[in-house]
Amino acid sequence: MEQSDAQPVKRQKKREPIRLTSKTVRALQADPESRDYIQFDDAVPRFGVRVKRSGEKVLKTYVFQYVNRYGQQRRYTIAAVGEMTPEGAREEARELRVRVRKGEDPSADRKADRRALTVAQLCDEYLKLGLRMRKRRKAGQSANIKASTLRGDKSRIESHVKPLLGTRAVASLTRQDMAEMVAAIEQGKTTRVVGGRSRGGGPIVAARTLTLMAALLEGAVERGLIVKNPARGVAKAADRKRLPPFSYELVAKLGEAMRKREAKGENAHGLRIIRLLLLTGCRRNEIESLRRKTVDFSAGCFCFADTKSGPQNRIVGQPALSFIRSFLPLDGKPDDFLFPGNSKSGYFQSLPRVWWRVSELAGLGDMTIHDLRHWFASAAAGMGFTDLIIAKLLGHALQGVTARYANPNDAAVRPAADKIASVLAAHLDGQPMGEVVQFNATA
Fold it and tell me: Which of 348, 211, 331 is nearest to 274 (CA)?
């Protein structure tokens, strides 16, 4: 919990000290006649719980008030209620009393530490917080940071933020520093080579890194580390979506390259994942981490416990399901990964290397793994399927009044999934089904 030095408390009704326990702390309510108050403890003088109303919420924090050697009143925030037990907070208050008696000023010392906090330390605090929130999600508690978001943020922090600003004190940052960071990333000064390809530079990466820094620094403002957010108002490139070129000829080239790489001993997991990405339109992490229990052959869908849009049952075309049956061993446990690997996550993690070798052989230029999802959508649109059906197949969250009333059911989505996967599989295998006739599919 971030702590802050507060202004002297306004004159309030006197409250008798009580023994602060978990039960008594929970029972404390906001005072309708005052903005906030402190309920002091009867065991440690000047230690208590500050109760404050913020909108509809009631905020409670453990605090310790004291007078420094210059006669100035100080308030030291120990932790938020819930992050520490009353006993733990009381023990810390006792230690703070000892420091004050020695002539120290804990609040002033903390301010000095805040000014010395570096950008790297601020980023590390965020990543640790995000990891804790991920663990809470696994434990069934509420959390709002998804694993994919955390991975992306960590990559931007390690690749761009830390090399450019890691050693700088947070309090020393200016708008000029933010602008120079953006320029450096756009110019490729933090670009690195991964799998033989340059990764990490360009205006889009710079824009997303600036967005991340703006959020982290806004949190620093709320915590009292800085007065203003230096990332506000800094110009960045528009985060425009790039649509890859699509044609069935390119799909055929990809399939030919995959067969050539297979003949040369390419990793089977990687090739299978690429095929499923194209035939299903799923996200990379959704296919990489597929488990046996995720695939429901009888219902013809993937049952995802969690996706970018929450839990979903995603309709999948029969060609994709038949392909999975072709390599899935008969024996196995529900939690077994379809594509096991040696990483800590338990599933195959080397897809980028396989994709680089295959896409280079196919002459696909700078096309990315995620672009296979765009290819699936492009094929669906070319066959005349509606945006609502395509959104359902891709697992997008349907929004708007129209979507609320026109949410397509499985009877409309399943034939679309079969048709799209069949056509893409045929071209991928070098056996096109003839001319693809466009037709209008209703939701």
Answer: 348
